[in-house]
Amino acid sequence: MAKLLKPAGEWNGKLVALDDGHGMKTSGKRTPYVPGLERQIKENEFNRAVVSFLADMLLERGFRVLFTAPTDYDTSLNARTDAANEHGADIFVSVHFNAMSYDFDYSSASGISVHIYPGHRNKAAGKLAELVGEELRKGTDQVWRGIKEDNFHVLRESGMPAILTENGFMDDREEALLMLKESYQKEVATETYAGICKYFGMKYEQASSSKKLKGATHYKDKVLLVRGEYADEDKGLSVYKGKVDLDNDEQKDKLYVRNEHSGFTTVKGLWRVGDYKLYEVENSHGTTRFVTGHDEYTYFQSKEEYNMSKTGFKDVQLGDDLQKEITKAKELGITRGVGNNRFKPEEPITRAEAAAFAVRAYEAVNK
Predict the structure, then answer these.
(1) Inter-residue contact 167 to 133 (CB < 8 Å)
(2) Residue pLDDT, tens place only, 1-42
(3) Chain Cα centroid distance, residue 362
(4) Alpha helical stretches, state H, the chain
(5) How many Å is the maximal CA-CA distance in the chain?
(6) Which CATH number does 3-199 carry?
(7) pTM attached to this predicted model
(8) Does residue 283 have a pLDDT over 80?
(9) What is the spatial distance between Cα 326 and Cα 323, in angstroms, rounded to a whole number?
(10) Chain-centre distance of CA 214, in angstroms?
(11) CATH 3.40.630.40 domain extents, the chain
């Protein structure tokens, strides 16, 4: 089922359908075995990350975003385009990573391309492809393969201008490693975002997720800590009342991480902190927290940074099922994760990985 996300502030009237190609379990959609990494890289590991970063940027600019395939399971092509059509999306953007074979030595193909439906080169889809392609060429030095016309389902059946980007080749050794590189994921997302803004005639502005936030704004993949004064909408962020000592774990843990089940509902009190206001806010669970924009009382970090500091992996949250065991296994050297400081706790392991864990556990015990 598709998932519609709305911006925290005013909607700019545009809806972008984002499609992360394939699923985590889609057969064949992965790199050859990568020596050193000791595994294959699934295409959706890259696609999903780029779409997530891109969605944050679009939401911040006032766009509504429709995830056509919001789960890790493969969503049918019909379901993807049906969702975009039913929601009346203004454009459809599908993110992919290309491949010629399942072998690094099969071909020398590499580079990026943008795909549209045949005959749409001089239509709106062609304009969108051209603008996004111009931006994609500004980043990492890669072969530009051009704008291609293909009879792909998502391009043919979408009732709005639709493009599909191929951001490298999984069977090229150098480009395959880019798939797990967060800086490259963010680069592709930023370039695609810039092209979308230009398509809608909006001045491209760098998303502020890399800056200090000026206001309390909702980002789905961030630990939500305040910058600016509390707003009446459900975008409040919270901090411990009193100066937060970041070297004091007890105080750091009092910083409240908002989730979709516990929004702020009632302002219970108001104080002054220097030139800033500090609000006492009670949420729907009766929990009281304090929100302010004063630098001495707040700090900002991504959810992944917070997870890393607490559990050792970007995608393992404090208090998750078996989190303590996962963290301990990393400390003992039994597991190193799957690369890029991720553990993928929901993914099954192979027999080879099980053997590696057993050997490392034996070595840890017999040190």
Answers:
(1) no
(2) 799 999 888 899 999 999 998 877 777 788 888 888 888 898
(3) 36
(4) 43-60, 77-87, 124-136, 153-156, 173-178, 182-199, 249-252, 303-311, 323-331, 351-365
(5) 68
(6) 3.40.630.40
(7) 0.59
(8) no
(9) 5
(10) 22
(11) 3-199
